[in-house]
Design goal:
This protein is an alpha/beta fold. It has 29 helices and 24 strands. The protein has an eight-stranded mixed β-sheet, covered by helices on one side. Strands 16-17-18-19-20-21-22 form a seven-stranded mixed β-sheet. A five-stranded mixed beta barrel has the order 1-3-4-6-5. α2 packs parallel to α4 and α2 packs parallel to α14. The radius of gyration is 32 Å and the shape is globular.
């Protein structure tokens, strides 16, 4: 807390001193009572040095040693010259009678000298860190793709990476570990000591079997590599390869043997304690609902190991990804309990638990420091956590003093120290977003909050709305560079989760602290925290599934500049709109309609979906997801595509709320990975699949998703017939004979012959030519002639049986394929063959989502 008179220049006139005294008298003379008039002008002197150090670090990481040395020496010399000139000038002024002996006239020179010194320090720090990537034997070994035996010290938590689906199956799952190599032994027996940052990539073993009973899921048997703690030393045999980009690693170690790692050095005591606490939190959350179990460790300590790709994508779509990473808000929430809420801190500094327990201000500051230190230990002392601690310290200063204008120097100091400590932060998008968000909260948010309160918005709502809008305004251009997309639901989603983050975090930290000593209590606390955590996940999924949740935007810095200009124009227009409440309401309604896009309104405006549609093919990229209309709001879904968000969005647009049956033709990921999006928020009767349970991990995934939502799973076989409403269908493949073993998952696809009133459709899944020929010879073969609509097998690949295409003789052939896919789908030969038969051929990669209407002579198709 500042003493009376601190922050004021002692050289100001007596009138200003009298004003200051009057302010303190008005506050009752109570020590610690803050008043807005105590602030004075914002001190920006530390901002130029911080920005200069940031820019210098980003440039000098790749610079040659000569450039680094020249820059550092030149800046120090110039700084020395400036300070020498200033001292000489002040000396001459002191010898002149009546000359000014103080004041701020010399501060520009001091600031310039400070900028030069910071540039020199940043150049030296960045040069040393950049040299770490070039020194030692590993860069040379990486150029030769050599195989070595390396001893490495782990510097981060291992993380499991499940790549997004881009084809029939996901890319192999891998464990990524950041480490420092300390010793290298080559095949010729040479041993070299070094200290070089690397990225270790461990391919996770996947055991596969044709038997469903032997299905293996990586989640059931987590890799032992994931249990390693930072500061552990391991010995690995790996192939050294160059890094994929210019990051902060000198090489990549590809570890091909994913067995139990060979540990040669135990982790430190602090990391063992942190690991015990984190493991206790995971155990305490084991019994929660899937979303809460995955999300709560991420909210509390940044442990995202359980976050599914689908949930992670939903958080990115709604700009809620910051809640999954350790940030200053985590620490701030805990410190608020000690110091008090921001609203009260602006008027009276001492609020929260500390004054109620009789704790003095100095002791409160010490406790805050202890909490910060504990936060760093538990959440790992890597740069991202240190950045969070620095941002949390800035927020602590805001709460403790209530003087927002003094926080800009504090933020600048945090930036300066962090980029000097770890220059790689200067190139980190996460660091940039963190600084922009904090700056928005300190500069724009207070003004916007005051403007909203002046228009009779409740104070708490005004503060939350201003904070969310300010952070979005400054961060959106950077997010657009990363995702090539602008979220239209970011502000409302952040507002909706705001009240849930604090209880989830506080209860989660309580569970973390009690788990090692009282697990039943920790589980009870985690159960309570599971409710707000589940709410956060629901908001993210719901927001991401809205048809107008975001718009595509150029993913470049030019696009970022355009978005910044658009944001400024929108803010200027918004100031005028605030004077007209009715116009504000009308714009809000229009934005809501654009985001929600209710099917009746969408149909009127865009004509999609067309009235009376019978069959729809969703545009889900490189995969399959189709819908057969079965009444108002009812449809049978055949396949779910690779992306839960895309298929959910398609079903919302079509107005599907009830699904009697989901047919998954086979278990390739581009047909089943989107199943959570189909099941979300809809009444689903059952799921029907093929009997061939391969790939086993995807088959297990389907069973887990169905079991979590209480949906039964059955198996389809040729000859089965079903009906719902005016829709009927017959399963024509695979055969019911269990002794018939298909050549692979594609040939085990469920094929359907569908009737919708007078319309006949043939859906072939991903059948390959051998199965297509067998289908033509099967008892169902004679039934396949003269269909109206053909869902072409395997995304229109070149592997089609001409005999089956001739027998089907479709009038309309529809193909589901992703734009610019690497498989060449649809194949030009297949398209040409279908057109030669007189069929109209359309595909989602060119025509978007497709919907079939009418029958007979009235048969038609509409694109989205």
């Amino acid at each position: 807390m500042r003493e009376e008179g601190e922050g004021y220049d002692d050289r100001r006139d007596e009138g200003r001193r009298g004003t200051r005294a009057a302010v303190h008298a008005a506050s009752g003379g109570r020590l610690g009572a803050a008043h807005p008039r105590q602030e004075g002008p914002t001190d920006l002197r530390l901002v130029p040095p911080a920005l200069a150090a940031w820019a210098t670090s980003a440039v000098m990481l790749d610079a040659a040693p000569a450039w680094v040395t020249g820059t550092a020496v030149g800046c120090l010399v110039l700084a020395g010259v400036l300070m020498t000139l200033r001292v000489g000038r002040m000396g001459r002024m002191g010898r002149v009678p009546g000359a000014m002996t103080g004041g701020r006239s010399g501060w520009p020179a001091v600031t310039a000298a400070a900028v030069l010194v910071c540039v020199a320090a940043a150049a030296v720090s960045a040069g040393l860190h950049g040299a770490d990537l070039r020194r030692g034997p590993l860069p040379g070994l990486a150029e030769r793709y050599a195989t070595v035996i390396a001893e490495a010290e782990i510097t981060s938590d291992p993380r499991l990476v499940r790549p997004r689906v881009r084809g029939p199956a996901p890319a192999p799952t891998a464990v990524l570990i950041e480490a420092d190599v300390r010793r290298v032994e080559t095949r010729d027996g040479a041993t070299m000591v070094t200290r070089t940052p690397v990225l270790m990539v461990v391919d996770v073993e996947r055991r596969r079997s044709s038997s469903a009973s032997s299905a293996f899921s990586a989640g059931d048997r987590p890799s032992p590599w994931l249990a390693l703690l930072p500061s552990t030393r391991v010995r690995v045999t790996a192939r050294v390869v160059p890094p994929a980009d210019g990051g902060d690693t000198a090489a990549v170690l590809r570890v091909r043997d994913p067995k139990v790692p060979e540990v040669v050095g135990e982790p430190s005591a602090a990391q063992r304690l942190a690991g015990r606490l984190r493991a206790g939190l995971r155990e305490a959350t084991d019994g929660l609902a899937p979303d809460a179990r995955a999300l709560l460790p991420g909210l509390v300590v940044g442990d995202t190991a359980r976050i599914t790709p689908e949930l992670d994508e939903a958080f990115k779509e709604t700009d809620l990804a910051h809640t999954l990473a350790v940030s200053g808000s985590n620490l701030t929430i805990i410190l608020v309990l000690l110091v008090g809420p921001p609203g009260l801190a602006q008027r009276v500094e001492r609020r929260g638990l500390a004054p109620r327990l009789g704790i003095s201000l100095r002791t409160t500051a010490l406790l805050g420091g202890a909490l910060t230190l504990g936060f760093v230990i538990v959440c790992r002392p890597d740069p991202s956590v240190l950045r969070a601690a620095a941002c949390g310290a800035v927020a602590l200063l805001a709460l403790a003093t209530g003087r927002r204008r003094s926080l800009i120097p504090a933020l600048a100091t945090a930036v300066l120290l962090l980029v000097l400590y770890d220059p790689w932060l200067s190139r980190s998008y996460g660091f940039l977003l963190s600084v922009l968000a904090t700056g928005a909260l300190l500069t724009l948010a207070p003004r916007w909050s005051a403007a909203l309160r002046a228009r009779r918005v409740p104070p708490r709502l005004a503060e939350a709305l201003a904070a969310a809008a300010a952070a979005q305004a400054l961060c959106a251009p950077v997010v657009a560079v990363l995702s090539a997309r602008v979220s239209l639901v970011a502000v409302p989603c952040n507002l909706l989760v705001e009240f849930a983050i604090a209880p989830a975090t506080v209860l989660g930290f309580a569970a973390l602290a009690t788990a090692p000593w009282a697990m039943p209590v920790a589980k009870a606390l985690a159960w309570c925290a599971g409710w707000p955590a589940g709410w956060i996940a629901d908001v993210a999924r719901t927001g991401a599934a809205l048809p107008g949740a975001g718009i595509d935007w150029p993913g470049s810095w030019t696009g970022a500049a355009l978005l910044a200009l658009a944001t400024v124009a929108l803010l200027l227009a918004g100031r005028r709109l605030l004077r007209h409440p009715w116009w504000c309401g009308a714009c809000g309604v229009l934005l809501l309609l654009a985001v929600v896009q209710p099917p009746p309104l969408t149909r009127v405006v865009t004509g999609w979906p067309p009235p009376g549609w019978r069959f729809a093919m969703c545009d889900v990229g490189q995969g399959d997801a189709t819908v057969l209309a079965a009444g108002a709001g009812t449809g049978v879904v055949v396949d779910a595509g690779p992306d839960p968000v895309l298929v959910d969005r398609c079903l919302r647009t079509l107005g599907i709320t009830r699904i009697p049956l989901v047919v998954l033709t086979h278990f390739h990921a581009d047909h089943v990975a989107g199943l959570p999006g189909v099941l979300r928020g809809r009444q689903v009767g059952a799921i029907e699949t093929t009997a061939y349970q391969e790939p086993v991990d995807q088959a297990e995934f389907v069973r887990r998703e169905a079991a979590a939502r209480g949906v039964s799973v059955t198996r389809a076989a040729a000859g089965e017939e079903r009906r719902t409403g005016g829709l009927s269908w017959r399963v024509v493949w695979p055969p019911a004979d269990p002794t018939v073993v298909p050549e692979g998952p594609n040939d085990a696809s469920v094929a359907l012959l569908v009737r919708s009133a007078g319309l006949r459709l043939l859906l072939l899944g991903d059948l390959e030519p051998p199965a297509q020929r067998a289908l033509l010879r099967s008892p169902a073969g004679p039934l396949l002639g003269g269909v109206d609509v053909l869902k072409v097998a395997h995304h229109g690949s070149a592997y089609q049986d001409p005999g089956l295409l001739s027998r089907a003789a479709p009038r309309l052939a529809l193909i589901s394929a992703g734009a610019d896919n690497t498989y060449g789908h649809p194949a030009p030969g297949t398209v040409a063959a279908l057109r030669a038969m007189g069929a109209v051929v359309l595909s989602t990669d060119r025509d978007g989502a497709l919907a079939v209407t009418g029958e007979g002579a009235e048969l038609g198709v509409a694109g989205d």
